[in-house]
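Two proteins were folded this term; both appear here.
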Amino acid sequence: MTTPRDGQHPGHPWDEPGFTYESNVSVADLAATLGAASSVLITTHEKPDGDALGTSLALHRGLRQIGVRSWIVLAGPLDSSLLAITEDDDDVRRFEQCGTPDEGDEPELVAVVDTGAWTQLDSMKDWLRPRVDRVIGIDHHARGGSVAGRRVVDTDCASATQALVPVLDAMGVDLAQGGVSTPLFLGLATDTGWFRFSSAGPAVYRLAARLMESGVDKDDLYARIEQNATPARFAMIARALTSLSFMGNGAVAVMRLSMEDFAETGASLEGLAGIVNTPLEIGSVRASILLTEAAKGLTKASFRSKPASGGLGIIDVNELAARFGGGGHVHAAGARLQLDLPEAAEAIEAELPGFLS
């Protein structure tokens, strides 16, 4: 078994000893707190995905609808196609440009959505820690820490946007007004693989129908988000598939992308979303891993897995990623390994036997 390196530790890295990550206030209480605030800074995990942006944007527009000033701060790489749903009157800022608020723009309340893990808030954690008592959280992950003093955590939800809807309802927000429904649908759709994943149960489809009745044009949204790729992305897909190899007697597919691949294609990290899912189309594959060389000695790993079927159980990629300081969901997770590409592949392969029963 590989020994964890550079701050990696046994157990799930999102956990805090002796801390139980669960709701500690009601939806009504959280809605009242948000509605009474004079200003709210909204943020989410670094490298925001569709659910992170969708939850942030839906809350931002909902607060605007009831007269509460808010703004969004995003950190890390972000797929530019996701920003296609933002509008001119949305106040979306990048941490890399604005940093944390100065004294003259200190928010009364901070909303952290789609995460409760300090490890996913690296850019803002030093600013957030002394403000925990005025941080509220809205999340659907099963693991997390003490980021938010008041929080609603609903692990039955397929997305953070689904967890946000009852809060918006309690605030009296009309989902059909002010463009609130579109980012809600974005989070719901992208976190369920556009309703392909096992998390897309009856409640998800009922909410999707409600959002479409509230004005979401799903075909237009899909085209803007999922059919807006660049030639560079397809060049990277080709290289990723060329690198395809297998572990665990064919149960796990692994693809690798090097810094040279990025330099030669002109692609960016932001444009890689979804590539890791491609090998899951192979019938014998139960999990897929994309290893990306972010810098010499640093590899980013994206993990995906299928639901149980045909008498085969699942590969819990959340727990697999946790072995390397990462995390996420049972079927989708990520980690950063302080290793070169070949070393990262070897380290992951060494951990696989315990996940393949």
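Next, the second protein.
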Amino acid sequence: MKQPAAKPAKLDPAQAGATGRAEPVVQSPALRWRAEARYAVVDPVAEEAPVAMVYNGISHAVMMATPADIEDFALGFSLSEGILNKPGELYDIEVRETPAGLMVEMEIATARFARLRERRRSLAGRTGCGLCGIDSLDEAVRPAAPVRSDFRLPLAALRRALAELPERQTLNRNTGSLHAAAWADATGAIVAAREDIGRHNALDKLIGNLAKAQADTAQGFALLSSRLSYELVQKAAAAGIPLVVAISAPTALALSMAEASGITAVGHARADSLMVYTHPERLI
């Protein structure tokens, strides 16, 4: 029996829907078994690559991520992690492809860089872990920023966004392995969506995109294809997002943080059912 080749071939950028220098999808030879039959196929597989966040010449974090929308990722990560207070503090950004991965070289405000060095953080990102490399318990669970918004959302609008989300998950339709974070307005129309192997990365990419677009984050909601963990609530709070809807379940710490920060947390969201855990007054 002929074995599939070990090294996957790169997918053509037009086919892969690439948005950066590296490809988000590769074509991997595989052997498909169906009933008693087996045959060779080529299967689209999500790529993951090390992405180094470099501030003023100093490497701060290396995250495993899908190599697409990297500038959005870098800006969103910088804002949601408190490295920057506002997008204008990022003066320049360049994404370089190296044999080892992607380097995102950023020039940031002197005051923000000085604060970054004081924190003495060393992150080592994983696709399933938002804590790897944090060197203190205080850093692990930072208080979420308070979110103040008079935003109200009709249930019909939430259902509209839920129905639209699968159509915006273009990479996941091909690979079946990526998370999505989407931004929807008060009518439920999805304005922006980003995908990544990591749920934290997907939300950071979305936050970066919203920041570049100067979107009013107090007047809309985030829709996540993943579970609602505490670090996603932290990032939503940092971005000023008042309502977060997750397809899967929340954690207890996420709900505690959402309650304290004023975020409406929705989980187990489906077209015909959902669970509202905190600040239910925003859903009408």
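Residues 115 and 140 are 18 Å apart (CA to CA). Confidence is low (pLDDT under 50) at residues 1-21, 121-136. These notes refer to the second protein only.
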